[in-house]
Write a structure and sequence with these properties.
Layout (H helix, E strand, L loop, with lengths): L3 H26 L9 H19 L8 H28 L1 H8 L2 H12 L4 H23 L5 H28 L6 H22 L10 H29 L4 H11 L3 H11 L8 H11 L6
Helix pairs in contact: 1-9, 1-10, 1-11, 2-8, 2-9, 3-4, 3-7, 3-8, 4-6, 4-7, 4-11, 5-6, 5-7, 5-10, 6-10, 6-12, 8-9, 9-10
Length: about 300
């Protein structure tokens, strides 16, 4: 069985991968292409990743466990809602604020774990830590953004549902990882169901067709699809490793580490705005204090 260090390093790799994907997603969201917006880029990115998973797992797509299939489809549905809400938040104020609210999913996920072991004091401590970490991330995003009160309210309206969609979707996804052996099969079912949801949404709304797509935009979409594929693969690998510990405090800690995708995003933001580097210090203190409640020993 792998060590906790190995599991947590893998979780940090997941955070980096998703951080870079969020940056690409933010760049894509900044384009005004007029095609099925804002669903079109989500469909393209998810389709690319889905096809990659299908190509690799095409001989192992049959799942006999109906409960596992149900978990995967529900997870895909919830992730579709989270990705859509995330896109709307990014359009409002960019990647750092959007990702900080998405990071609130660690509270939802840890709470879901705690509901399965209500007397687990360590999980209660980790829940407190996840709340402090989320507050630190939100503080940092606020310190790196200039927003009005009205916009902050709007972002909360989008951000909280994003966290609920992602957190609950991840919990269901976590339940499925020990029921299906092939990681690419897991990812295929989840992402294929996301694409299906987006296509259904398109069929229900008036389509605005425009062909004003630049070659750069297409390249960003392709890069986004490949980056999501890699991030999702690492995430599923991490989930399987965490499952092997049969210890929900380790699971919660690993998942919280994997959700610190704001780290590369902050680096990206500070590179483009170097004068802001002092403003995020209080947030870092909150995050470090929150991480002291996690399972390290």
């Amino acid at each position: 069985m792998p060590s906790k260090l190995h599991a947590y390093l893998l979780a940090f790799g997941v955070a980096l991968a998703y951080g870079f994907w969020y940056i690409l997603f933010s760049i894509i969201a900044s384009y005004q292409v007029g095609i099925f917006a804002p669903i079109f880029p989500l469909i393209v990115i998810e389709t690319i990743s889905t096809l990659l998973n299908f190509t690799i797992a095409r001989h192992e797509l049959l799942i006999n466990d109906k409960i596992a299939i149900l978990y995967l489809l529900i997870s895909g549905l919830l992730y579709a809602g989270g990705n859509y809400m995330l896109y709307l938040v990014m359009n409002s104020n960019g990647v750092s604020f959007a990702s900080s609210f998405a990071s609130a999913e660690i509270v939802v996920f840890t709470l879901a774990l705690l509901l399965t072991e209500r007397n687990n004091q360590k999980l209660k401590n980790i829940l407190l830590g996840s709340i402090l970490i989320t507050l630190g991330l939100i503080y940092e995003s606020l310190s790196l953004s200039t927003i009005s009160v009205d916009l902050a309210i709007k972002l909360i309206e989008y951000g909280l549902p994003t966290a609920i969609f992602y957190g609950s979707g991840t919990f269901v996804y976590f339940l499925s990882t020990n029921k299906v052996k092939n990681k690419f099969t897991i990812n295929f079912y989840i992402q294929a169901s996301e694409v299906a949801i987006f296509l259904i949404l398109i069929s229900l709304v008036k389509v605005n067709i425009s062909m004003q797509i630049s070659s750069y935009y297409l390249l960003w979409l392709i890069a986004g699809g490949f980056t999501l594929f890699i991030a999702f693969y690492l995430n599923t690998t991490m989930m399987k490793v965490l499952q092997s510990f049969n210890n929900k405090t380790v699971v919660a800690t690993g998942y919280i580490i994997s959700d610190l995708m704001l780290l590369p995003i902050l680096i990206y933001t500070l590179i483009t705005n170097p004068s802001l580097w002092l403003s995020y210090t209080p947030g870092i203190i909150l995050i470090i204090f929150g991480m002291s409640f996690l399972e390290w020993k």
